[in-house]
Amino acid sequence: MVQPLPGAVLFACNLNQVRSPMAAALMKQAFGDRVFVDSCGIIPRGEIDPFVAAALGEVGWDLGRHDAQAFDDLEDGSFDMIVCLTPEALARAEAMAKGRATDVEYWPTDDPTIAGGSREQRLEAYRAVREMLRRRIAARFGSPSTMTG
């Protein structure tokens, strides 16, 4: 069900290398500067996964330079909503949101890094996550032309 667009959304996963930066990029692509979007992980690791860059490049999005960050690295913890893509991130987000007017949602998201096979087969796992996240974003927030907030 489409709900009003929040002012600030944080996407969180474990490493801030695959799922949360992908979700944040898709949200930014859909809504531009109408909403502040950031991403983080529990234990951030290095640069963006190259398959994420490839999967997003296919839909016209360049992540540019992504620096993985932890919950504690966030400059501003004032988010209207935290979307957690892993159970571990959910536990951390609930602790962060305690006592705040922050909605926390859990969107179970497959880990495409565990896919095996050829390069194309592995890339297909990333595409599947990308498309699942696009559908979830559209279902939750609507398309830019049908936003209610």
Question: What would you note in describing this structure?
Answer:
The protein is an alpha/beta fold and 149 residues long. It has one domain (8-144): Rossmann fold (3-Layer(aba) Sandwich). 37% of the residues lie in helices and 13% in strands. The protein is built from 4 helices and 4 strands, in the order βαβαβαβα. The chain has helices at residues 19-31, 50-57, 87-97, 119-141, and strands at residues 8-13, 36-41, 81-84, 103-106. The protein has a 4-stranded parallel sheet with strand order 2-1-3-4, sandwiched between helices. α3 links the parallel β3 (81-84) and β4 (103-106). α1 crosses α4. The protein is globular, with a radius of gyration of 15 Å.
Task: Present the secondary structure layout.
Elements: E1 8-13, H1 19-31, E2 36-41, H2 50-57, E3 81-84, H3 87-97, E4 103-106, H4 119-141
Parallel strand pairs: 1-2, 1-3, 3-4
Helix pairs in contact: 1-4, 2-4
A few lines on this structure:
With 149 residues, the protein is α/β, with parallel strands linked by helices. It has 4 helices and 4 strands.
Measured between the Cα atoms of the first and last residue, the distance is 13 Å
Order of helices and strands: EHEHEHEH
- The CATH class assignment is Alpha Beta
User: What is the count of helical runs?
Assistant: 4
CATH topology: Rossmann fold
In CATH terms, the superfamily is Response regulator
Question: What is the oligomeric state here?
Answer: single chain
Count of β-strands = 4
How many domains in all? Answer: 1
Helix content percent band: 25-40%
Largest sheet: 4 strands, parallel
Over the alpha carbons, how many angstroms does the gyration radius reach? 15 Å
